[in-house]
Design a protein that fits this description.
Blueprint (H helix, E strand, L loop, with lengths): L1 H43 L12 H8 L4 H9 L6 H10 L1 H4 L4 E2 L7 E5 L4 E5 L3 H5 L3 E2 H8 L4 H6 L3 H9 L7 E2 L3 H17 L22 H10 L2 H10 L3 E4 H8 L14 H12 L4 E3 L3 E4 L3 H160 L7 H42 L4 H43 L8 H89 L3 H32 L9 H6 L3 H7 L2 H43 L5 E2 L2 E2 H12 L10 H15 L4 H21 E3 L19 H17 L21 E3 L1 H36 L7 H9 L6 H19 L4 H25 L6 H21 L1 H4 L7 H11 L8 H8 L5 H10 L12 H13 L20 H7 L36
Parallel strand pairs: 11-12
Antiparallel strand pairs: 1-2, 2-3, 4-5, 6-8, 7-8, 9-10
Helix pairs in contact: 1-2, 1-10, 3-4, 13-14, 15-17, 15-18, 15-22, 16-17, 16-18, 17-18, 18-19, 22-26, 23-25, 24-27, 25-27, 25-37, 27-29, 27-30, 30-33, 31-33, 35-36
């Protein structure tokens, strides 16, 4: 209890200051409100009498007046030994306080006093007044802190009196300066009130419903006391004494025009005259006509509203009468038409029955005839198709084998030629780079030396007298140098033309390729050397000219003393001219180097043609050498057979056993060699290699007879092994070259594909060309079966860079969304995870048996060639681009292909939100205008209602954005499921924004705004119907919350509706919190209708209190930004139509590479589970 009393004592001084501020503000409120009301009467020039109101100036005089409470408090604080009792005695004995009606002394305390404020009496305890009012500051300390470099500290201790005294020249007093809290507070309060008087404030009165701080509890006496203390009742009394109801003439006519509708047809009457005649017609009393407003006494506005409601009810009854009569007449007409239609339908049914029977008899005869013809044609077509297929397969197989052999030979020669060209080009580029670097360094050194010379000559101002003559001489020399360089350029052009003519002659003379290519190389090298020497001589000449000009400038230094002022200008002009000539020289050198590089390029092309011809010659020589080796092998076989026969004949005379052994050896050798040769030839024909055999030397060397061992000795097996290893080495080299060539070719084709993907390739039959192109290329190159490949990563990089670079371009995003979804659909339908088996075409044994190393090399080369080139596989699968026996089966994809599929799914989930957010950004600024009714005079709205209704600009802009987005998606052939999901989220976004604005802003919950939004929703519904359900789906259902809210706003029988009817018929989608919010915020700005009844509101409160879920207390909607679809659902909705047809080769892929497979139809087989 003592603690509470101490707190009250401490706070007494603060309470006095606060109550003083409240009295000031209350006085400002009274003067401002009442003065504003009376000023409006004066401004409108109406008859009125002055209204008296309670003034609290006497309380202010008591507290802050001269010898008032604050002055006595400051006077007492100046005495160091003063106490609270001294202060209270001064207050009790002060003439102003003891005789004041607002001041009194309590009977229970000798240190307290009571002040009757505007809001009521307050008792103050003086115990701590003196301590709280003192605010002593040492003058030296304040001066020191006010001079601080910190702006905050200096402003905090700023002394205005000291500053004024310092500016006036008066000396400052030392020691302590008395400055009380009350005086400072009174001064600051006066400044605040001066600022408030200069402004136009608006007041908000906060009323506390109960003292227990409980919800739903309303204490009438407490609220009434607050209204009385706050001056609200006084303000209401004064307002009722005047004219509480007032409206501008435009609003008055807009609201009560139906009481005299004939006045609107008279264009000569203005709004004031119409308002006056309406009042006269309704016989309203107690009104005044101002300049811009009509003023009514209390209760007159309610009378006008009652007359207006009766007039509207009478009009509604008349409309219902005519509507019911029209409905009855329409029902009778419908019944009559139905009877006639029923009779016609029965007669038509009888006629159709007879016609159907006759038609069926004739159709049976036609079907029998067609079926018999069809069966005969089908049998004949099947037999013919089988024969043609067998013939085509056999001829194609034979042709492919021959073509494969020729292609491999040409590929080997191309690899050799490319390597030699690359090596020669690398050496030439290294030499040329070194020469250019040396030239640049030497020229830079000369230029620096020349610059140092010029700078040293410029420092002396005495040499600039004769600069004009020297510059003229230099100009002439440089012009001569320029003419020389131009002549050299013409010579270079002539030499280039000669080289072009020589290249044409070289192409015509293929027979003498080696000799003519050598001469051409020597002649080109000589010409380039001469041109280089000429250019160097020209550069030396130019440098000599610059040196001569510098010498001339140095020689003229003795005669420049008289023209020092003009010399600086001439020096600047000379430097500018020299810089310009140096620039021209550098441009001439650049053109010269460009010409030389062009000439060297042409020479390099000629060298490439020469190397290619040499490669062809070497290839022919290799073929000849191979034929020679085959002849040598056959000669050796014949020689061995002859030797064996001679030895057998000689040994027959010596011993019969030896003769028999020799005979058997002869028979085996004579029969074994032809068989092996025949096997080698058959194998060569089988694999399509006319110049190679599966190793004829190895079997002969490995299966020699004992007599051959006796004749040839130990050298025979060594020679066979050497020949075998040499053949393996050549095969390995040929295989490596072929693989490198195919790899380079494949790399070039991949680069072209990636370049083509960076542009919009368009659509074929409604399908994106880019998706089909990527799938067909990966299928043709067998990238799906590869264990390791960088093709998928490069494709993903291109797609990702294109999406990142065009995030704000809806057309670009829609295009890539269509491409990624279509490509993902192709992968989903045509690939499957690989099983545990090995690669395609791999032999089960791993080794080649007893055929030797040569046969193993050939088998490996053929297997890899088949794997890379896409020919016939060991497993027997048909070609993917032809009419194979079984069509194209599902691919067993490896890990890179499956990862590529996941990355495509991620792209779909990335592009869709980007496209959706771009549309949301465009629509968001327009939604604020869709919820508010555009303001305007009533007559303009009445004229617009008689004509065709026009959609507001905001709704039109939103529908325009949606139409543009729909056109963009349609042009990009985005799947319908994605388009439907996109517009569902967009309309859900519109629904959330409009509904939340409706619940958060009371000015939006009006009858006119409801009609405005309903009109806009009608236009949206018409747009959705015109767009079609195939594109936008059931997007109209996404607007169900705003549709229910608008339906609640425009319904006219809300007070008579029960809660069950509202929840089931008007707003079935809204929660109880949302219904309560919109019911309490509703106001009718047109017909002044009421919201739902009090019983319905009480039922709503009861339901809300019974709800236990925390989420049920929120009445706002949340925008769902998650993806409204799964990739599998979108892929299931897509069809395979036109995905396997051939496509034209894009322009970016023409001119190199083999892309003819794109134009063929891809025959797909059924998916393998």
């Amino acid at each position: 209890m003592q603690t509470n009393q101490l707190i009250e004592h401490i706070r007494a001084h603060a309470a006095l200051c606060i109550n003083l501020a409240n009295e000031k503000l209350q006085q400002h409120f009274n003067h401002h409100v009442f003065k504003q009301e009376q000023a409006e009467y004066e401004r409108e020039k109406i008859d009125w009498s002055y209204i008296e109101f309670v003034d609290n100036q006497d309380v202010l005089d008591l507290l802050e007046g001269k010898i008032g409470v604050l002055d006595l408090l400051d006077e007492t604080c100046k005495f160091p030994t003063a106490t609270a009792k001294d202060l209270s005695n001064k207050l009790y004995t002060s003439p102003l306080c003891k005789d004041h009606v607002r001041f009194s002394k309590p009977k229970t305390s000798i240190t307290a006093f009571t002040v009757e404020h505007y809001a009521g009496g307050v008792t103050y305890e003086c115990t701590n007044f003196l301590e709280k009012n003192k605010d002593f500051v040492v003058a030296e300390h304040q001066a020191l802190l006010s001079a601080s470099s910190s702006g905050f500290v200096s402003e905090l201790f700023y002394d205005a009196e000291a500053a004024a005294a310092a500016s006036g020249g008066k000396p400052l007093l030392k020691g302590f300066k008395f400055n009380s809290v009350g005086s400072v507070f009174k001064k600051q309060l006066g400044e605040l009130m001066a600022q408030l008087h200069l402004m136009e404030p608006h007041y908000v009165r906060c009323i506390k419903p109960n003292g227990a701080n409980a919800a739903g509890l309303f204490e009438g006496a407490n609220v009434l006391q607050q209204l009385r203390c706050g001056g609200v009742l006084e303000a209401v009394r004064i307002s009722c004494a005047g004219f509480p109801s007032k409206r501008p003439y435009t609003d008055f006519v807009d609201h009560f025009w139906m009481l005299a509708p004939e006045l609107l047809a008279n264009p000569e009457l203005d709004d004031r005259e119409i308002s006056l005649r309406i009042l006269l017609k309704t016989q309203v009393e107690g009104y005044q006509m101002g300049v811009t407003k009509v003023f009514l006494r209390a209760g007159q506005m309610a009378l006008l509203d009652k007359l207006r409601m009766e007039h509207q009810n009478k009009g509604a009854t008349t409309i219902q009468k005519y509507a019911r009569g029209w409905l009855a007449r329409r029902h009778v007409a419908h019944l009559k038409n139905a009877i006639v239609a029923l009779q016609a339908a029965v007669r038509a049914a009888q006629a159709r029955k007879w016609y159907k029977q006759a038609r069926r008899d004739r159709a049976a005869t036609i079907i029998q005839t067609a079926w018999r013809g069809h069966t005969a044609r089908t049998a004949y077509a099947l037999a013919r198709r089988l024969i043609l297929r067998i013939q085509s397969s056999w001829r194609g197989r034979t042709t492919r084998h021959r073509f494969e052999h020729v292609r491999r030979m040409h590929a080997a020669l191309a690899i050799q030629t490319a390597f030699r060209v690359w090596r020669s080009r690398r050496q030439f580029l290294a030499q040329r780079a070194a020469a250019l670097q040396m030239q640049a360094m030497f020229r830079a050194k000369l230029a620096k030396r020349e610059m140092r010379t010029l700078r040293s000559s410029v420092r002396d101002n005495s040499h600039l007298l004769a600069d004009k003559n020297a510059l003229d001489t230099k100009v002439k020399e440089l012009e001569a140098t320029l003419e020389t360089v131009m002549g050299q350029r013409n010579d270079l052009r002539a030499s280039m033309k000669e080289e072009i003519a020589a290249s044409a002659v070289f192409a015509a003379r293929v027979a003498a390729l080696e000799k003519e290519n050598g001469e051409l190389a020597e002649r080109a090298a000589q010409a380039s050397k001469e041109d280089l020497d000429t250019a160097l001589a020209a550069a030396a000449t130019a440098e000599a000219a610059l040196a001569a000009s510098a010498a001339a400038l140095a020689a003229a230094t003795s005669s420049a003393a008289k023209a020092a002022a003009d010399a600086e200008k001439k020096l600047a002009a000379a430097n500018e001219y020299i810089q310009r000539m140096m620039t021209e020289r550098s441009e001439i050198e650049k053109r010269f180097h460009g010409m030389r590089e062009d000439l060297m390029g042409r020479l390099q092309n000629a060298c490439d043609q020469r190397d290619e011809a040499r490669g062809q010659v070497l290839g022919l020589q290799v073929d000849v050498e191979k034929l020679k080796e085959g002849l040598i092998v056959k000669d050796r076989q014949l020689a061995v057979a002859s030797s064996a026969a001679a030895v057998a004949a000689a040994a027959a005379a010596a011993a019969p056993s030896a003769a028999q052994l020799a005979a058997r050896s002869e028979v085996s050798s004579m029969s074994g060699a032809p068989n092996k040769a025949l096997y080698g030839r058959a194998a060569s024909d089988r694999f399509g290699l006319a110049g190679f055999s599966p190793g004829p030397t190895a079997p002969v060397g490995a299966e020699r007879s004992p007599l051959e061992d006796l004749l040839k000795g130990p050298a025979g097996p060594a020679a066979g092994a050497k020949a075998e290893s040499e053949a393996d080495r050549k095969m390995r080299e040929l295989q490596a070259k072929q693989a490198q060539m195919l790899s380079d070719k494949r790399r070039g084709e991949e680069d072209k594909l990636l370049v083509a993907l960076q542009s919009n390739l368009g659509f074929v039959n409604g399908r994106p060309v880019a998706a089909i192109l990527v799938f067909r290329c990966c299928l043709h190159w067998r990238a799906f079966q590869a264990d390791r490949t960088s093709l998928f990563d490069r494709i993903v990089g291109v797609i990702g860079s294109q999406i990142e670079a065009h995030q704000d371009d809806d057309a670009h995003l829609a295009y890539w969304l269509s491409v990624t979804v279509t490509l993902l659909h192709l992968l989903q339908k045509n690939i499957k995870p690989a099983s545990g088996s090995g690669g395609l075409g791999r032999r089960p044994g791993g080794a080649v048996g007893s055929g030797g190393g040569a046969r193993g090399v050939f088998a490996t080369m053929f297997q890899r060639s088949n794997t890379i080139s896409g020919g016939v596989h060991a497993s027997g699968e048909a070609s993917i681009h032809g009419g194979g026996a079984g069509g194209f089966k599902a691919i067993e994809a490896k890990y890179p292909a499956l990862l590529f599929k996941q990355q495509l799914d991620a792209f779909v989930q990335k592009v869709f939100p980007l496209l959706r957010d771009n549309v949301k950004k465009a629509v968001t600024p327009l939604l604020a205008s869709c919820i508010m009714t555009p303001k305007g005079p009533r007559r303009a709205q009445a004229a617009a209602a008689q004509s065709e209704q026009v959609v507001s600009r905001a709704w039109g802009d939103i529908l325009g954005v949606f139409g543009t987005t729909l056109t963009t998606c349609t042009d990009a052939h985005v799947p319908g499921a994605l388009v439907q999901a996109l517009f569902k989220q967009l309309f859900s976004f519109v629904n959330v924004n409009l509904f939340n604005q409706l619940l958060l802003r009371r000015e939006c919950c009006s009858f006119s705004n409801g009609e405005h939004v309903r009109t806009g929703l009608g236009q949206v519904q018409a747009w959705i119907a015109s767009a079609g359900a195939g594109l936008v789906g059931d997007s109209w259902d996404e607007l169900r919350f705003i549709r229910n809210a608008v339906q609640f706003l425009v319904v006219g029988t809300k007070p008579r509706r029960t809660l069950v009817e509202i929840e089931s018929e008007i707003c079935p989608e809204l929660s109880i919190q949302q219904l309560y919010r919109i019911s309490t915020m509703y106001w009718d700005d047109r017909y002044n209708t009421e919201t739902v009844s009090g019983d319905v509101l009480a039922q709503m409160k009861t339901k809300m209190s019974e709800a236990s879920s925390a989420s049920s207390h929120s009445f706002l909607l949340d925008d769902d930004a998650t993806l409204p679809f799964q990739a599998s659902e979108v892929l299931m909705s897509m069809d395979d139509r036109d995905l396997n047809t051939g496509i034209p080769v894009p322009a970016a892929l023409k001119g190199g590479g083999d892309y003819a497979f794109l134009e063929k139809e891809l025959k797909m087989a059924a998916m393998v589970a």
